[in-house]
Amino acid sequence: IPKRKWFSLICDETCDESTLEQLCVGIRSLNDNYESFEDVLGPYELSRQNAETIVEVIFD
Hints:
- The chain has one domain (6-59).
- Strand 2 (21-30) and strand 3 (36-46) form a beta hairpin.
- 15% of the residues lie in helices and 52% in strands.
- The mean pLDDT is 86.
- It is an alpha+beta fold.
- Strands 1-2-3 form a 3-stranded antiparallel beta sheet.
C-alpha cells in the first residue's frame, strides 16, 4: 500500500443483533498502471458508537 500513489478509505460501522458495535475499514488504492486493489482491515469492536471512537479506531 505505501508504494501506491492514490488511495481512499472506506469505513462502515454497524451494530449487530447482540448490540455489538463493529467497524470495518477498507483501503482502495491504485498503482502507477491504474490497477485497483482493495485491502480490508477489521472488523474492529467499538466500545461506543460515536464519531470520536470511530475516528480513534481509524487513526489507531
